[in-house]
Write a structure and sequence with these properties.
Two copies of one chain form a homodimer.
Chain A: E1 2-6, H1 10-22, E2 26-30, H2 33-42, E3 47-51, H3 59-68, E4 75-80, H4 84-92, E5 97-101, H5 105-120, E6 126-129, E7 132-135, E8 140-143, E9 146-148, H6 152-163, H7 171-178, H8 189-201, E10 206-209, E11 213-216
Parallel strand pairs in A: 1-2, 1-3, 3-4, 4-5
Antiparallel strand pairs in A: 6-7, 7-8, 8-9, 10-11
Helix pairs in contact in A: 2-3, 6-8
Chain A binds a DNA duplex (30 and 30 nucleotides) through helix 6 and helix 8.
Amino acid sequence: MRLLLVEDDPLISRDVAAVLSKNGYLVDTESNGEEAWFKGDVEEYAVAILDLGLPGMDGLSVLKRWRENNRNFPVLILTARGNWSERVEGIDAGADDYLAKPFQMEELLARLRAIVRRASGQASPVITAGNMRLDTRTKSLTVNGSPVELSPMEYRCLHFLALNRDKVVSQMELTEQLYAQDFERDSNSVEVLIARMRRKLGKGVITTKRGFGYTLSDGDNS
Amino acid sequence: MRLLLVEDDPLISRDVAAVLSKNGYLVDTESNGEEAWFKGDVEEYAVAILDLGLPGMDGLSVLKRWRENNRNFPVLILTARGNWSERVEGIDAGADDYLAKPFQMEELLARLRAIVRRASGQASPVITAGNMRLDTRTKSLTVNGSPVELSPMEYRCLHFLALNRDKVVSQMELTEQLYAQDFERDSNSVEVLIARMRRKLGKGVITTKRGFGYTLSDGDNS
DNA sequence: TGATCATTGTCAGTTATTTGTAAGGTTCGT
DNA sequence: ACGAACCTTACAAATAACTGACAATGATCA
């Protein structure tokens, strides 16, 4: 895991870098503000540790400029002991955490774990099948890149099919999923639903297995 | 924004709750570990403040049980000064930040802002969408560069939407965050709120996904 | 204290979309 | 060729969302 360590005191820098390396991080060190900013802007880091007292450009400005450019990797800042207004500023500038110097290495490691875990927990809940892509966050669907509007019922239906892709889903299963279980059995609402979706999705996406049910096919072997 | 405050000292609890309310949070307070756990497990909070020294179930256990049950709202823990091993434990148990008692209210507010926006995947305290820009520190909004006044309710609503940028937020979610959970269901106050904000923000900023909810979008999509 | 103003929830009326139903057509397997 | 399974279309009821007006509330200020 790549980590950028920005710290102007060479003694601290060397010690911290050593411990971090021993704990599995791939550490780049910088001591100058300008160069630190450049590095963070260009390289892909998983996390950065940033000392606020720096020659050149000060740490706060570095952080702000990163955030302005949408560099969203988590940043832990190092502050002087007791200077709590500096911490507030740092956090409001977009820092994810701070640590007052001097600090215990054990604590630094714990907080790195925490902010990395946080940042990586942003998995995008997207289901893909064939050339369609269902985003559960935005409740939106794109087919071949172009957006397709779905009504709530259609969305729920397609979502269920997408979760069971390549499996045959019977009308009864769909009925139980979409409606209360005591729904009238002699209704053709599911068929209508499928038809409406097909009109939007195009042919060949939902196939019928006569007598068994429907399948959302993954590969589009027409 | 709903917040759960877990603190057994009634004096501290009352003071902190007062300041938080004044800053736009919808605060529920709990003093007992068991009940705090239950509340956090059942309700939808945007963030929680958790004192580690509690009667009943201790704070660390409360936190662990939340995380085991996939309750992933950000948690800020309050620890005794100087007890850094407790902090490390807390963070590894799933806390997002800590604060040592006694603390400055200003700092508590800053860190709350930080963990809330971090949990939502935002790196910066300034959230932009389309041509609007929301500064969560000053609670101010500009559209196309010119400032726009928001009422408290409108700000809270827009803030919540901004935290969930590009995600569809249902009316129910909004209701739960803006009002207490026992709010009347058959009211259209959220719709009215949205309409009032749209009048100020212009069209295309808040889009409706009929049947699902609202989205604060980047504005350029039809 | 009383007037004024902003805020916010409620309501009624309107518009637009969604969805179940029914009726008739088509396809498939045997 | 027959029936069952499935498709398609149109329609009407139900539902969701928008809007403007109004009233209650509480803050502000002379």
